[in-house]
Amino acid sequence: MQDDTLVDRSCRHAGVARTLKVVNLEHLQSLPQASATQWVQTYCAETNTAILARKAALGFRCVHVMTALEGPPEAAALRRT
Fold first, then answer.
1. Dist CA 5 CA 21 (whole Å)
2. What does each of the 81 residues of the chain score in pLDDT, given as a tens digit?
3. How far apart are the C-alpha atoms of 27 and 54, rounded to whole Å?
4. Which ranges of the chain does DSSP label H, i.e. alpha helix?
5. pTM for this one?
6. Can you tell me the distance from the alpha carbon of 9 to that of 72, in angstroms, rounded to the nearest whole number?
7. Which of 29, 57, 70, 73, by CA, is between 20 and 30 Å from 22?
8. Are 6 and 17 in contact (CB under 8 A)?
9. 7 contact partners, CB below 8 Å, separation of at least 6
10. Could you give the C-alpha distances from 78 to 59, 70, 81, in angstroms and in order?
């Protein structure tokens, strides 16, 4: 599992995130368990169009949109007003 990919602002747009994704996928394919793997799950914000495009270029497709609340419910209610 690869969780978040955080690239320092000074290094963004240099292909760092794409390279990390590719290296992780290559490593996954090298594992013995990979032969039984049916899918790879990944997440990102719906507003992160750059990484969505990178993931699409790597063959990922959206099959589900996960919604999650970040922070206390009271804070989310306040943002809606």
1. 9
2. 566 778 898 988 898 888 888 898 899 889 998 888 888 888 887 888 888 888 899 888 888 887 766 666 665 555 555
3. 18
4. 16-30, 49-57, 73-80
5. 0.61
6. 28
7. 70
8. no
9. 16, 17
10. 38, 13, 6
